[in-house]
Amino acid sequence: MDEKLIREVVLSFRTMQRKIHHYLQEEATKRDITTVQLFALGTLKREPHLTLGELAERVQVNKSTMSGIVDRLVKANFLTRGRDEGNRRALNLQLTSEGLAKVDDTYDVFFDRLEAVLEIDSEELRAMLMTHEKMIALLERKGEAE
Description:
Blueprint: H1 3-30, H2 35-46, H3 52-59, H4 63-75, E1 79-84, E2 87-95, H5 97-113, H6 122-145
Antiparallel strand pairs: 1-2
Helix pairs in contact: 1-5, 2-3, 2-5, 3-4
């Protein structure tokens, strides 16, 4: 096993993740929203009508943290809360038109900043994605075995 190579790969992932997060944080801040609020809005755009617990799971925060995030997003008029007809105790979260505009505007500018990555050949990007997926699967399998 080439530990030096693994170390370099991990550090490369970390550097890339930090750069991407920094860009996203800058664009979110310019639009008076936090990155976790943006993640929540983006998640609800992709998966409308999630409950608070489901949204917390997707964004990878606990339910009480997500409750505070949702409170602020409702107050800012980016989300509404409704009751799920199938389960009256569950809250159903929905983006407002302002919330949709906020997430679309922020991600549009964010992805424009990442456009330089398109200089990399799409086959190379696909191969990298497949490698990342394999690595994630191997790490998850090892984690389940422990």
